[in-house]
Amino acid sequence: MELPAVELRPVRRADFPLVCRWLADPLVARWWDDDSSPDAVEAHYGPAVDGADTTAVYLGMHEGRVFGLVQVYRFDDEPESLAELSTVCPVPPGALSIDYLVGEPDARGRGLGAGMIAAAVARGFADHPDAGEVLVPVVAANEASWRALERAGGVRYATGELTPDNPVDSREHVVHRFARPQGGGASLPGRRTSTAGSRRRRTAG
């Protein structure tokens, strides 16, 4: 399945007003339970811009227009998330995860979220040669989110109870897995699916 071409670029402080707007969008706010105020966005994303946070934060772009946000991180850098997910499924050393949102309403339902996910997975593998897989837990009720993972090439790996980001949600989660391509390489930006959502697990769009 061919996905839309999506490029990633690092988030910048000049993007923070846009991120505030996206976080305040009702659909995003439903699943990505973050404060959308300027001070909160600066506190959360400023360290990534400055290089003080190991999480890599990107904006997704299609045909020159930004439409969403994705962040890539190592479970080894998130001990609480690692400990909790390990109660549901094996989490190998070096495993990565992502969070993602489609902030522009008119960009939803067009496959752009899946394209951004595929690009982020490829970027994660390229930037972390020791990572063999990307594991993404999502609230089971967030069907649009986990279907985007599957369109991007993720395979359902496990189900189980995890603490939801939004307390109104059930604890039931699904975990999808992306394996590093055979041969150890990773193509960028990763536009084709394969047939072979702690502070995290926030996914929207």
UniProtKB/TrEMBL annotation:
Q: Which InterPro entries match?
A: Acyl_CoA_acyltransferase, Acyltransferase_MbtK/IucB-like, GNAT_dom
Location of region: Disordered: 179-205
Q: Name one GO molecular function term.
A: acyltransferase activity
What are the record keywords, sorted?
Acyltransferase, Antibiotic resistance, Transferase
Domain of life of the organism encoding this protein: Bacteria
Q: Which Pfam families would you find in this protein's record?
A: Acetyltransf_8
Q: In which pathway does it act?
A: Siderophore biosynthesis; mycobactin biosynthesis
- Domain N-acetyltransferase, by residue range, is 6-181
PANTHER family xref list: LYSINE N-ACYLTRANSFERASE C17G9.06C-RELATED
Q: What is the documented function of this protein?
A: Acyltransferase required for the direct transfer of medium- to long-chain fatty acyl moieties from a carrier protein (MbtL) on to the epsilon-amino group of lysine residue in the mycobactin core.
Q: What is this protein called?
A: Lysine N-acyltransferase MbtK
